[in-house]
Amino acid sequence: MDQRQAHRRYFDSHAADYDAHTADGAWTPNQYLAGVLRTLAAQDVEVRTALDLGTGTGQTLEVVRAAFPQARLWASDLSPAMLRHAALKAPDAHFEVADISSHVTGLTESFDLVTAVGCLEMVEDLMTVLPRLMPHLNPGGQLRSSHLFTAYHRAGAPVLYELLLIGKG
Questions:
Q1: Radius of gyration (Cα) for the chain, nearest Å?
Q2: Residue 92 to residues 45, 66, 96, Cα–Cα distance (Å)
Q3: Under 8 Å between Cβ of 77 and 55
Q4: Which band of pLDDT confidence, cut at 50, 70 and 90, is reported for residue 88?
Q5: Alpha-carbon span 8 to 17, nearest angstrom
Q6: DSSP-H helix ranges across 50-125
Q7: Among 119, 136, 131, 144, which Cα is nearest to 29's?
Q8: I need a labelling partner for 87 at 20 to 30 A (CA). Which of 12, 40, 63, 69 fits?
């Protein structure tokens, strides 16, 4: 079994209890993200389209929807069970079962906002994926700001954990 299949099985098996497990206050990236997005919305940053990579049960989609209720949402995750839970939170979003590398490689749309919370550490070819993602930020892949960026070291190498990209307006 390859790593992607192992991740899919793990998250499929935990989809039903994932939200309860992360709701006890120990998991705070989406709380931080909510504050960042409220600030951006207050500054009249317009988000018409948003992509959430590694969507899981849709916790980040809820945060994006709260800040930018008019935005069209796209979401991907390698776990079909997780996406079924996400669809309950954002039924109007476009969902795709795919790992992040495959999803980014196949992108044809562009987005005002891209989020990836708690999933990038599982992307083996992240340094290839991120440059492929940048052209899909509106307009022309130019970065306006990166507000949420967490990195740590694992086995002596830096690991990117969370990312928020806003297209240049």
A1: 15
A2: 22, 14, 13
A3: yes
A4: very high
A5: 15
A6: 59-67, 80-89, 100-105
A7: 119
A8: 40
Residues 100 and 119: their CA atoms lie apart, in Å, by: 9
Q: How far apart are the first and last CA of the chain?
A: 43
- The count of residues in the chain is 169
Q: Tell me the two tokens of residue 21.
A: 């497990």
Rounded to 5, what percent of the chain is helix, strand, coil?
45, 25, 30
HSE at residue 152, side-chain half, CA atoms within 13 A, is 7
Tokens of 129: 């994926």
Structure confidence by residue, pLDDT tens digits, 123-142: 888 778 888 888 888 863 33
d(CA 71, CA 69): 6
Q: What does residue 105 show for φ and ψ, rounded to 5 degrees?
A: -60, -35
